[in-house]
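Researcher:
Attend to token order:
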Amino acid sequence: MCCSRRLASMTDLPWRLSCVGSVTRDPDFADRVGRQARRERIADRVCLTGALAGADLDRMYAAADVLVLASRGETYGIVVTEALARGMPVIASTAGLPEAVGHGTDGVRPGILVPARHPAAPAAALRDWLTDAGLRQRLRSVALDRRATLSGWSDTSATLSRVLAEMAA
């Protein structure tokens, strides 16, 4: 079952989906997403924003409740850490994202990790998110906690420089 069909199965719940990212990099994919949303009669709930930056991206994060990144493969999910830096929980796949999601100081993940390449898993996690107010509150709290443990760019670049120097030696 495709993603839009899974989302269409949740029209009994209040949700809106903003897909943020280039619609010109792979226009066939963007067109397919739009056609699927129209076919499943959820186009009024799905918005393909295109690429966003600066204040526009900040406004999108501020308006969102959860980041969903169900990638089949990631080397590192920078968008996950961007969301966590704003105290936003995530629903993400296990495809290279557990390290980015990390844990709060109490060892709890600030989101839900779902098996990569398991099409029903993100929808099930999203349904849990939408129907369980206690889960939403817990994950928001842990995401705020995780925000405090993220490394800044200066720490990250210093670590990378150290690792590269060690490798060169």
